[in-house]
């Protein structure tokens, strides 16, 4: 693989952009080496600045479930752009996409558009606090809800009562309102709820976790959270930024048959443009300004180009529901294929999968929460795997803690190439 122009571009970028990137994980810091600069992409493939063609398993970190430059989405953006790019007034297309989202997702009456998943989660928590009149939230170690202050909290060792910030700049004052729980551990959640009686506004969770590898909820876990919330008046917030419109037309609520009170969206809902959203039943959503007291706003929220891309994407997914089965099958095929070659090559591994989310962990123990994900991260081996795959034209996320995002643009031939590369690379371990 040629790595010349990307390298030069990275050198230039670092002079004027912190770390050369506008979002940290892109910098390849965890795996070493220098990032690939992409020139264009189409379908399942990225073409970088050195002319390398890569099979893409990141798909812009989730949004491009139908692959790059998907024609109906592109056409919608281009046609919309010709009419002007932003007005700061209501437009019809905002209602259209809201109607479609409300139709596809269970248990929501209204939806508000924002510009990122971060904004969606941040706003959802403000709404939960305003609605309940309570201040604390419970989040799970290893779950990512964007980079707003309340969420940048990690577990200390031992029993955690108060969160400690894991980024300088997050104040202790903010951190103390975020309680940390262990994923897939209902008892732990019950203890936190008991110890902070009548102070908790919401429990926010990735209902299938995707930011510590892919970790599906254990049997009964989501149902148990629903019960706790029903008994205590705590709101259950599903952060479906990654899972929404990916794991089913109605996301994990539909797939698992568990209803949340507020649902956050991002990624797929924007079709590759910057969009986030949060949604709930009327009684909760009507707490938002301008009809309710909870303030939330955005100069570019509901931007016509972003709405056109999102509407085209959701329309594709809604009208061709076989897509969901198709990507799930492709992901299962990849899972089985990689499993076979990793076993053959005597590698310690665990593969987690739910629908079209999949992650490979280089350790034997089951990965069911952040601690087990961390123990299986095995950075030395992962880094070798990552660079080996890249060298063979396979672009996976440059971090042992990321899910692979399967797109329906991947062909079985692409999957076979990926399985062959896995075989070739891990033979040398
Ligand atoms: C990506 C992601 C976010 C943050 O979305 P941004 O658009 O990057 O701000 C929040 N929650 C989950 C579950 C995500 O995967």
UniProtKB/TrEMBL annotation:
<dbReference type="Pfam" id="PF00202">
    <property type="entry name" value="Aminotran_3"/>
</dbReference>
<comment type="subunit">
    <text>Homodimer.</text>
</comment>
<dbReference type="InterPro" id="IPR015422">
    <property type="entry name" value="PyrdxlP-dep_Trfase_small"/>
</dbReference>
<dbReference type="InterPro" id="IPR015424">
    <property type="entry name" value="PyrdxlP-dep_Trfase"/>
</dbReference>
<protein>
    <recommendedName>
        <fullName>Glutamate-1-semialdehyde 2,1-aminomutase</fullName>
        <ecNumber>5.4.3.8</ecNumber>
    </recommendedName>
</protein>
<keyword id="KW-0663">Pyridoxal phosphate</keyword>
<comment type="similarity">
    <text>Belongs to the class-III pyridoxal-phosphate-dependent aminotransferase family. HemL subfamily.</text>
</comment>
<keyword id="KW-0413">Isomerase</keyword>
<dbReference type="InterPro" id="IPR015421">
    <property type="entry name" value="PyrdxlP-dep_Trfase_major"/>
</dbReference>
<dbReference type="GO" id="GO:0005737">
    <property type="term" value="C:cytoplasm"/>
</dbReference>
<keyword id="KW-0963">Cytoplasm</keyword>
<dbReference type="GO" id="GO:0042286">
    <property type="term" value="F:glutamate-1-semialdehyde 2,1-aminomutase activity"/>
</dbReference>
<comment type="pathway">
    <text>Porphyrin-containing compound metabolism; protoporphyrin-IX biosynthesis; 5-aminolevulinate from L-glutamyl-tRNA(Glu): step 2/2.</text>
</comment>
<dbReference type="GO" id="GO:0008483">
    <property type="term" value="F:transaminase activity"/>
</dbReference>
<keyword id="KW-0627">Porphyrin biosynthesis</keyword>
<dbReference type="GO" id="GO:0006782">
    <property type="term" value="P:protoporphyrinogen IX biosynthetic process"/>
</dbReference>
<feature type="modified residue" description="N6-(pyridoxal phosphate)lysine">
    <location>
        <position position="267"/>
    </location>
</feature>
<dbReference type="GO" id="GO:0030170">
    <property type="term" value="F:pyridoxal phosphate binding"/>
</dbReference>
<dbReference type="InterPro" id="IPR005814">
    <property type="entry name" value="Aminotrans_3"/>
</dbReference>
<dbReference type="InterPro" id="IPR004639">
    <property type="entry name" value="4pyrrol_synth_GluAld_NH2Trfase"/>
</dbReference>
<dbReference type="InterPro" id="IPR049704">
    <property type="entry name" value="Aminotrans_3_PPA_site"/>
</dbReference>
């Amino acid at each position: 693989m040629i790595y010349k122009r990307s390298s030069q571009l990275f050198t230039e970028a670092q002079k004027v952009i912190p770390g050369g990137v506008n979002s940290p994980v892109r910098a390849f810091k965890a795996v070493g080496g220098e990032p690939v600069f992409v020139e264009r992409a189409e379908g399942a493939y990225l073409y970088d600045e050195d002319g390398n063609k890569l099979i893409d398993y990141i798909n812009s970190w989730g949004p491009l479930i139908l692959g790059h430059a998907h024609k109906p989405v592109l056409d919608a953006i281009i046609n919309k752009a010709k009419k002007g790019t932003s007005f700061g007034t209501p437009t019809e297309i905002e209602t259209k996409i809201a109607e479609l989202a409300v139709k596809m997702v269970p248990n929501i009456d209204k939806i508000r558009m924002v510009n990122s998943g971060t904004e969606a989660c941040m706003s959802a928590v403000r709404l939960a606090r305003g609605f309940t009149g309570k201040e604390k939230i419970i989040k799970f170690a290893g779950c990512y809800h964007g980079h707003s202050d309340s969420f940048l909290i990690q577990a200390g060792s031992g029993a955690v009562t108060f969160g400690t910030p894991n980024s300088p700049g997050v104040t202790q004052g903010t951190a103390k309102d975020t309680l940390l729980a262990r994923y897939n551990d209902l008892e732990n959640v019950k203890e936190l709820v008991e110890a902070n009686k009548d102070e908790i506004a919401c429990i926010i969770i990735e209902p299938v976790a995707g930011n510590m590898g892919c970790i599906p909820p254990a049997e009964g876990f989501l149902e148990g959270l629903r019960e706790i919330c029903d008994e205590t008046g705590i709101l259950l917030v599903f952060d479906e930024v990654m899972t929404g419109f990916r794991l089913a037309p109605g996301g994990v609520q539909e797939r698992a048959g568990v209803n949340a009170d507020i649902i956050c969206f991002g990624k797929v809902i924007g079709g590759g443009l910057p969009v986030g959203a949060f949604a709930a039943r009327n009684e909760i959503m009507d707490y938002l300004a301008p009809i309710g007291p909870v303030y939330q706003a955005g100069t570019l929220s509901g931007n016509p180009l972003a709405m056109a891309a999102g509407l085209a994407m959701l329309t594709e997914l809604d009208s061709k529901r076989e897509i969901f089965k198709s990507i799930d099958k492709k992901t299962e095929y990849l899972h089985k294929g990689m499993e076979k070659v990793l076993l053959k090559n005597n590698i310690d591994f665990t593969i987690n999968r739910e629908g079209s989310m999949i992650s490979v962990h280089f350790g034997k123990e089951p990965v069911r929460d952040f601690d087990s994900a961390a123990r299986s991260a095995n950075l030395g081996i992962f880094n070798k795997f990552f660079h080996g795959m890249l060298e063979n034209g396979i672009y996976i996320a440059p971090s042992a803690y990321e899910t692979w995002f399967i797109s329906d643009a991947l062909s079985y031939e692409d999957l076979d190439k990926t399985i062959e590369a896995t075989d070739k690379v891990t033979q040398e371990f």
